[in-house]
Amino acid sequence: MVRKERWRACVRRGAVGVEWILKMFRGVCLAVALCLCVLFVVRGVAFSYASTASDASSAIAEAELRIQVCYSAAADAEKAGANVTGLLSVLDGAGLLLSKASLAFQGGDYDSAYSLAVQSNSTLARFEAQAGSLKNTAVQDGRMDFWVNIVGSTVGTFAVIIIGVLLWFYLKRRPEKSRNVVS
Protein backbone atom coordinates (compact mmCIF):
# COMPACT_ATOMS: atom_id res chain seq x y z
CA MET A 1 0.00 0.00 0.00
CA VAL A 2 2.86 2.32 0.81
CA ARG A 3 4.39 1.76 -2.63
CA LYS A 4 1.24 2.81 -4.40
CA GLU A 5 1.19 6.04 -2.43
CA ARG A 6 4.85 6.69 -3.26
CA TRP A 7 4.14 6.00 -6.90
CA ARG A 8 1.23 8.41 -6.93
CA ALA A 9 3.32 11.06 -5.18
CA CYS A 10 6.09 10.62 -7.72
CA VAL A 11 3.61 10.81 -10.58
CA ARG A 12 2.16 14.06 -9.17
CA ARG A 13 5.63 15.58 -8.86
CA GLY A 14 6.65 14.31 -12.27
CA ALA A 15 9.62 12.38 -10.87
CA VAL A 16 8.63 8.90 -12.00
CA GLY A 17 11.82 8.51 -14.02
CA VAL A 18 15.29 7.59 -12.91
CA GLU A 19 15.03 8.56 -9.24
CA TRP A 20 12.17 6.25 -8.51
CA ILE A 21 13.70 3.37 -10.48
CA LEU A 22 17.00 3.71 -8.57
CA LYS A 23 15.21 3.68 -5.21
CA MET A 24 13.27 0.56 -6.15
CA PHE A 25 16.39 -1.08 -7.59
CA ARG A 26 18.32 -0.49 -4.35
CA GLY A 27 15.54 -2.07 -2.34
CA VAL A 28 15.39 -5.11 -4.58
CA CYS A 29 19.20 -5.46 -4.54
CA LEU A 30 19.28 -5.35 -0.74
CA ALA A 31 16.57 -8.00 -0.53
CA VAL A 32 18.35 -10.31 -2.99
CA ALA A 33 21.69 -9.82 -1.22
CA LEU A 34 20.10 -10.62 2.14
CA CYS A 35 18.49 -13.79 0.73
CA LEU A 36 21.79 -14.92 -0.79
CA CYS A 37 23.65 -14.35 2.48
CA VAL A 38 21.08 -16.37 4.40
CA LEU A 39 21.24 -19.12 1.79
CA PHE A 40 25.05 -19.36 1.92
CA VAL A 41 25.08 -19.40 5.71
CA VAL A 42 22.44 -22.14 5.86
CA ARG A 43 24.20 -24.24 3.18
CA GLY A 44 27.57 -23.75 4.90
CA VAL A 45 26.16 -24.99 8.18
CA ALA A 46 24.48 -27.88 6.42
CA PHE A 47 27.71 -28.90 4.66
CA SER A 48 29.84 -28.62 7.78
CA TYR A 49 27.56 -31.00 9.67
CA ALA A 50 26.77 -33.28 6.73
CA SER A 51 29.27 -35.95 7.80
CA THR A 52 27.60 -37.87 10.53
CA ALA A 53 28.82 -41.10 12.06
CA SER A 54 26.78 -43.17 9.61
CA ASP A 55 28.13 -41.21 6.60
CA ALA A 56 31.70 -41.66 7.80
CA SER A 57 31.15 -45.33 8.61
CA SER A 58 29.68 -46.08 5.18
CA ALA A 59 32.49 -44.17 3.44
CA ILE A 60 35.10 -46.14 5.39
CA ALA A 61 33.37 -49.43 4.60
CA GLU A 62 33.23 -48.49 0.91
CA ALA A 63 36.93 -47.58 0.92
CA GLU A 64 37.83 -50.87 2.63
CA LEU A 65 35.90 -52.82 0.01
CA ARG A 66 37.54 -50.83 -2.77
CA ILE A 67 41.02 -51.58 -1.36
CA GLN A 68 40.21 -55.29 -1.20
CA VAL A 69 39.01 -55.31 -4.82
CA CYS A 70 42.09 -53.36 -5.94
CA TYR A 71 44.42 -55.68 -4.02
CA SER A 72 42.81 -58.64 -5.76
CA ALA A 73 43.29 -56.94 -9.14
CA ALA A 74 46.96 -56.27 -8.33
CA ALA A 75 47.45 -59.90 -7.25
CA ASP A 76 45.91 -61.12 -10.52
CA ALA A 77 48.20 -58.83 -12.51
CA GLU A 78 51.22 -60.11 -10.58
CA LYS A 79 50.21 -63.74 -11.20
CA ALA A 80 50.12 -62.91 -14.91
CA GLY A 81 53.72 -61.71 -14.62
CA ALA A 82 53.21 -57.94 -14.54
CA ASN A 83 55.44 -55.55 -12.62
CA VAL A 84 53.06 -54.20 -9.97
CA THR A 85 55.40 -52.06 -7.86
CA GLY A 86 53.70 -48.84 -9.02
CA LEU A 87 50.29 -50.28 -8.24
CA LEU A 88 51.41 -51.36 -4.79
CA SER A 89 52.66 -47.87 -3.95
CA VAL A 90 49.25 -46.41 -4.91
CA LEU A 91 47.57 -49.11 -2.84
CA ASP A 92 49.82 -48.30 0.13
CA GLY A 93 48.89 -44.61 -0.11
CA ALA A 94 45.19 -45.43 -0.17
CA GLY A 95 45.64 -47.78 2.78
CA LEU A 96 47.41 -45.04 4.73
CA LEU A 97 44.52 -42.64 4.09
CA LEU A 98 42.05 -45.34 5.13
CA SER A 99 43.90 -46.02 8.39
CA LYS A 100 43.89 -42.28 9.14
CA ALA A 101 40.16 -42.25 8.43
CA SER A 102 39.61 -45.14 10.84
CA LEU A 103 41.60 -43.38 13.55
CA ALA A 104 39.65 -40.16 13.02
CA PHE A 105 36.38 -42.12 13.20
CA GLN A 106 37.43 -43.76 16.46
CA GLY A 107 38.31 -40.31 17.80
CA GLY A 108 34.86 -38.97 16.90
CA ASP A 109 36.05 -36.65 14.12
CA TYR A 110 33.50 -37.77 11.56
CA ASP A 111 34.17 -34.95 9.10
CA SER A 112 37.86 -35.87 8.81
CA ALA A 113 37.04 -39.57 8.72
CA TYR A 114 34.58 -39.05 5.88
CA SER A 115 36.98 -36.80 3.99
CA LEU A 116 39.92 -39.20 4.34
CA ALA A 117 37.82 -42.20 3.31
CA VAL A 118 36.62 -40.35 0.20
CA GLN A 119 40.23 -39.38 -0.61
CA SER A 120 41.29 -43.01 -0.23
CA ASN A 121 38.50 -44.07 -2.55
CA SER A 122 39.32 -41.42 -5.15
CA THR A 123 43.01 -42.40 -5.06
CA LEU A 124 41.97 -45.80 -6.38
CA ALA A 125 39.66 -44.43 -9.09
CA ARG A 126 41.68 -45.74 -12.04
CA PHE A 127 43.48 -48.54 -10.20
CA GLU A 128 41.48 -51.45 -11.59
CA ALA A 129 41.89 -50.20 -15.16
CA GLN A 130 45.65 -49.87 -14.69
CA ALA A 131 45.88 -53.33 -13.13
CA GLY A 132 43.86 -54.81 -15.98
CA SER A 133 46.08 -53.09 -18.52
CA LEU A 134 49.23 -54.41 -16.85
CA LYS A 135 47.73 -57.89 -16.69
CA ASN A 136 46.84 -57.84 -20.40
CA THR A 137 50.33 -56.61 -21.28
CA ALA A 138 51.90 -59.38 -19.18
CA VAL A 139 49.70 -62.01 -20.85
CA GLN A 140 50.72 -60.74 -24.30
CA ASP A 141 54.37 -60.73 -23.27
CA GLY A 142 53.95 -64.29 -22.01
CA ARG A 143 52.56 -65.36 -25.37
CA MET A 144 55.46 -63.69 -27.13
CA ASP A 145 57.91 -65.45 -24.81
CA PHE A 146 56.22 -68.74 -25.70
CA TRP A 147 56.72 -68.12 -29.38
CA VAL A 148 60.30 -67.02 -28.94
CA ASN A 149 61.31 -69.75 -26.51
CA ILE A 150 59.37 -72.82 -27.60
CA VAL A 151 59.06 -72.25 -31.32
CA GLY A 152 62.52 -70.71 -31.55
CA SER A 153 64.02 -73.65 -29.67
CA THR A 154 62.18 -76.14 -31.86
CA VAL A 155 63.33 -74.45 -35.06
CA GLY A 156 66.87 -74.22 -33.67
CA THR A 157 66.88 -77.93 -32.80
CA PHE A 158 65.72 -78.92 -36.27
CA ALA A 159 68.30 -76.58 -37.84
CA VAL A 160 71.10 -78.26 -35.85
CA ILE A 161 69.85 -81.73 -36.83
CA ILE A 162 69.54 -80.81 -40.52
CA ILE A 163 72.98 -79.16 -40.60
CA GLY A 164 74.46 -82.20 -38.84
CA VAL A 165 72.92 -84.62 -41.36
CA LEU A 166 74.05 -82.49 -44.31
CA LEU A 167 77.57 -82.27 -42.89
CA TRP A 168 77.63 -86.05 -42.37
CA PHE A 169 76.59 -86.64 -46.01
CA TYR A 170 79.21 -84.16 -47.20
CA LEU A 171 81.99 -85.77 -45.21
CA LYS A 172 80.93 -89.30 -46.24
CA ARG A 173 81.05 -88.51 -49.98
CA ARG A 174 84.47 -86.88 -49.78
CA PRO A 175 87.26 -88.91 -51.39
CA GLU A 176 89.10 -91.19 -49.06
CA LYS A 177 92.63 -89.85 -49.45
CA SER A 178 93.50 -89.78 -45.84
CA ARG A 179 92.48 -93.37 -45.07
CA ASN A 180 95.39 -95.11 -46.95
CA VAL A 181 98.23 -92.77 -46.06
CA VAL A 182 99.81 -94.76 -43.25
CA SER A 183 99.31 -98.46 -42.87
Explain the layout of strands and helices.
Layout: H1 2-13, H2 18-48, H3 53-79, H4 85-106, H5 110-123, H6 127-173
Please describe what this structure looks like.
The chain is mainly α and 183 residues long. It has two domains: 2-47; 51-139, Butyryl-CoA Dehydrogenase, subunit A, domain 3, CATH 1.20.140. 84% of the residues lie in helices and 0% in strands. The protein has six helices and no strands. The chain has helices spanning 2-13, 18-48, 53-79, 85-106, 110-123, 127-173. Helix 3 (53-79) runs antiparallel to helix 4 (85-106). The protein is elongated, with a radius of gyration of 41 Å. The relative contact order is 0.08. Residues 45-50 have low confidence and may be disordered.
Short description:
This protein is mostly helical and 183 residues long. The protein has 6 helices and no strands. Mean pLDDT is 80; it is low at 45-50.
Q: Taking all residues together, what is the mean pLDDT?
A: 80
CA distance, first residue to last residue: 146 Å
**How many E-type strands?**
0
Encode the helix/strand succession as letters.
HHHHHH
Low-confidence stretches: 45-50
Structural class: mainly alpha
The major sheet is characterized as: none
Q: Using the coordinates shown, work out and report the CATH topology of the largest domain.
A: Butyryl-CoA Dehydrogenase, subunit A, domain 3
CATH class division of the largest domain: Mainly Alpha
Number of domains: 2
What's the shape?
A: elongated
CATH architecture of the largest domain: Up-down Bundle
Percent strand = under 5%
Radius of gyration: 41 Å
The helix fraction, in percent, is over 70%
How many helices in DSSP terms? 6
